[in-house]
Design brief:
homohexamer, alpha/beta, Rossmann fold, 5-stranded parallel beta sheet, globular, pyridine nucleotide biosynthesis (chains A, B, C, D, E, F), ATP-binding (chains A, B, C, D, E, F), cytoplasm (chains A, B, C, D, E, F), Rossmann-like_a/b/a_fold (chains A, B, C, D, E, F)
Chain lengths: 171, 171, 171, 171, 171, 171
Amino acid sequence: MRAFLIGRWQPFHKGHLEIIKKISAEVDEIIVGIGSCQKSHTLTDPFTAGERMMMITKTLENYDINYYAIPIIDIDYNAVWVSSVESLTPPFTTIYTGNSLVRELFSERNYVVKKPELYNRTDYSGTKIRKKMLDGSAWEHLVPEEVVKVIEEIDGINRIRRLSEKDYDEE
Amino acid sequence: MRAFLIGRWQPFHKGHLEIIKKISAEVDEIIVGIGSCQKSHTLTDPFTAGERMMMITKTLENYDINYYAIPIIDIDYNAVWVSSVESLTPPFTTIYTGNSLVRELFSERNYVVKKPELYNRTDYSGTKIRKKMLDGSAWEHLVPEEVVKVIEEIDGINRIRRLSEKDYDEE
Amino acid sequence: MRAFLIGRWQPFHKGHLEIIKKISAEVDEIIVGIGSCQKSHTLTDPFTAGERMMMITKTLENYDINYYAIPIIDIDYNAVWVSSVESLTPPFTTIYTGNSLVRELFSERNYVVKKPELYNRTDYSGTKIRKKMLDGSAWEHLVPEEVVKVIEEIDGINRIRRLSEKDYDEE
Amino acid sequence: MRAFLIGRWQPFHKGHLEIIKKISAEVDEIIVGIGSCQKSHTLTDPFTAGERMMMITKTLENYDINYYAIPIIDIDYNAVWVSSVESLTPPFTTIYTGNSLVRELFSERNYVVKKPELYNRTDYSGTKIRKKMLDGSAWEHLVPEEVVKVIEEIDGINRIRRLSEKDYDEE
Amino acid sequence: MRAFLIGRWQPFHKGHLEIIKKISAEVDEIIVGIGSCQKSHTLTDPFTAGERMMMITKTLENYDINYYAIPIIDIDYNAVWVSSVESLTPPFTTIYTGNSLVRELFSERNYVVKKPELYNRTDYSGTKIRKKMLDGSAWEHLVPEEVVKVIEEIDGINRIRRLSEKDYDEE
Amino acid sequence: MRAFLIGRWQPFHKGHLEIIKKISAEVDEIIVGIGSCQKSHTLTDPFTAGERMMMITKTLENYDINYYAIPIIDIDYNAVWVSSVESLTPPFTTIYTGNSLVRELFSERNYVVKKPELYNRTDYSGTKIRKKMLDGSAWEHLVPEEVVKVIEEIDGINRIRRLSEKDYDEE
């Protein structure tokens, strides 16, 4: 059995890793969709799809998990989004998601929809981690070690800080 | 004389029907544009263009009205929108709209722009009807009988309720 | 039972009308898709979607046929095309098509696919009719009377002739 | 040395002119990018790219400035935006911008990024000028004389006022 | 009076220059549209819009011609193309074109359409010049001196030669 | 060192596998781009990106190769294509390609461009293999065993045969 799990992974953190480990124990193969793959360089979506792909791959190669990591573009047309996902992924029967729109779209196409079991949501939150990156708090313990390395390789913290500088608008 | 009337029809209700009946008394043929046709499966735009097309067609076939129902895609480029509408519709000279942007765009292209006469706006409002669908109040008396049937056929009320479920976000 | 029939209708001719009459005898409602709806003003696709909509509607209102006429945009992404059609149309279970790609795409989505019964293909052919329009031969007897009127209203024959003028290219 | 300066120029005002005059004293050629070129007919972006092109060209032809004015389309894909700009402009090495996203995107591509020196920001502000246009205050002294003429030619003030009319929504 | 002239200018040659000089003698301002602006790096369209913009601007600044040079994107939707051009350009009333589709589209919108007077078409042809660039024949005398400089600055001849190398396909 | 190799993999065959094995011996990680990812269901591009992803992943998991498999969408805008690839992939410095356009685009961005060493091009050719699939010849020995399984799972041979059926066009 194959299952699909979609997220934005901005960045990929230990809570994400726990979800994937739990799901992978229940399925043969897990497809990790990298959502909003065309987004990057904003405070909410700082990392490119390629950078997020690297975070996930580097982390998961330390585990015995059968997975695919696949970038998924946003298309602003809900009624065709499931077909678009299907064309980019191996066939799957189950989707894990906490998002009501995604749940509805896949339910109407007769997929089995499950909610992933979250892990320590208080600490492991993309929003909180991005905030720590910005204000100089420690964030490294909240993500896998390999993710720290990727963010260093791409100088990610400085990108986020520069993006947060106040505009000085010539308008 | 042909006239154009655009709306989102989420859903098509009795106020809409009255507007169309009044306009059709003044013109030879009325073109009913189904706006934002690519939108569906959100709380504001729950129904697909095909579902809205069915609501309108099933209702209007009970009246002696010469009409066309035509899906119109949003294009995020105001300066070409009128041309896009023109390419999808029979030629027309008059547009009925209450929206200031639509009015301006068609005025600059020398169309006659009129405001449709609304009918009991207090009861007949898409926003209010969608809210009633969500919270379990009676809504059926506010739309034509055929629209009730269409929404039943597509299980529309459950769609809206599922879309409103609180997200449980793995972010 | 609802069935879907897609064509380009450049222009809508008597062969098309016969196909629709035959299918409508077998189904409750027929959905007439106006394919390549964004195309116009070429020798192969001279008429806009709106003009073709008018040809179909004016003709069919003389017959007791339950139909929808719906413009369908080409999207250069085969794997999502069925979903796109589904979002623009009322639900249907059967598709009539002679095109192998369309047949395959709908078959993989479990639709019933049938071939429409053609009618006097020697005379009734869009390609041949457009050629006659261009070279000044009689074409009017090959299309329904209402189509002749539409083409006159939009000065369609002159459009085709002007489009065929030899380029005089400043390249 | 060539430099790039991007703005929306809604409308082009005297503060903009001063910025361009200062930059052009430092560089051989200045490329004036007309951002969000597909936007028009809203209260925030009332003028088309062509209208803004005319404002800039008519004004700058009175000065001895080597410039290019080039419309730049928004593309909702930050990671490719620099390439898109590069394909539309002559090669340049320096960009003047006060916007943190633009600064970051060009910095990552090794451009020299500078902040333009603003000029009397209190008076010369697009937002304030559009507000004056709307409420009938004097705005003409805040823009170059040629811009006044362009706005008259296109009846721009009436466009803004009509766009601000309250909607009377048939929804 | 303003006139519009569209071309691909791959590259801008002396025949083009003569056309522009002749038209500019008849009109107040000429708008030079740079067509297919998104195309580059092929044997038929080797130069980017920015490079072609530079060729035209550098050449025309030696003449007393009132012009605008404006990149125009191809949009695969004939019925809205005129509107798209209108939004990117100052208002104009006359278009010079030898292309039958462009002629038809602007004629239907009530523009005055004229054919530009070509100049020594035997020598001055983009196709022939690109062929000479490829096979090492002299081409420099066929384009304005400034165009030679631009093509040198961007190493254009080598680009064309590399693009013509035989593929060695791993397919 | 990371290298990028792009192909369409329609289907992934033993020649492809040999290329990847050779390159992976020279680099730390190889990024396998799945080109034209939006294409499927044609005789030239029968398989979806997801199906091709499965062919590659299933095959390579039998080898000790550090790789990423990443779908790459065609964008009809050569000048931004490299940026689009960069946003979807981990950073790389070398690209292996036999295609002259790809070579030129990456060369202009200062990548190291190498030609992959082909392996028995006579037998291992996507075009030839698709032809064998169509006419019933043996093809299974030309692709990795896992690819045979994937094509069976998706009933790929029948898809190709159905797509090749003669059209019976109602046009």
